[in-house]
User: Fold ABC transporter, permease protein, ABC-2 family from Formosa agariphila.
Amino acid sequence: MLRLLNLELQKLLLNRASKVLIFISFILPFTVLILSSIKINFFGLFTLELGELGIFNFPVIWHITTFFASQFKFFFAIVVVSMIGNEYSNKTIKQNLIDGLSKKEFILSKFYTIVFFSAIATILIGLATFAIGMYYSSYTEASIIFRETNFLLAYFVKLVGFFSLCLFLAMLVKRSAFALGGLFVLFIVEWIGFGIIAWQTSSELAEKVQRFFPLKSMYNLIKQPFQRVIMTKFPEKSEMFYDYAVHPTDIFIVIIWTAIFVFFSYKLLERRDL
Assistant:
């Protein structure tokens, strides 16, 4: 595993564009640190500081930071599809196979890289969240601080699943731009499928089925936290209640999709004449 990971890291770090995108994909999520220190002056009448609103209290901060950080996953997605696009355009994929790398090892090297960078991103977000929370949170009990750290697991699974989808699309079309466009097409197809099911049956059944769609299942791992924040400010508004928790079933669904994407990426390469 380490040999394959080291091989892929060497390729990425020797490519200037990849290094820049990797740097951006790690740095941008940390803009949450900037958000926590923003102070808005309303015409000298009063100053609003986001960190003082309670949104960075434990345990809700784990939800907020992981959701916010996951919005920047597209930058590393470009790296993932570029890994495959460059292999085909530069003919290095054929050279790697000639040099003794099996097709299975080739796909595994890409997957190990995905897991590696997803793990680093999760650790960094976890440390940043803990630091912000310890500074702003009014709760210091360990049971409260670590209550919802399962959002970190959801964040990691979400990244691995999404990047594995990008790997599959890149293997399918062999071009970076088309692979990224495939994400948009899949998004549209999922909503068309949802509309057809809702039209033919009911919206309740359509929502249950939609839960198993690739992109929707990844979104369900970390739902939007804004409604939750509002709920804490207006607890009497029961109509705003929604299920924001991380569920093992949703994690399992994304893991299954991840395995499917990696497996079919290998099958595409196995059957393709290079």
Remarks:
- Residues 103-136 form the longest helix (34 residues).
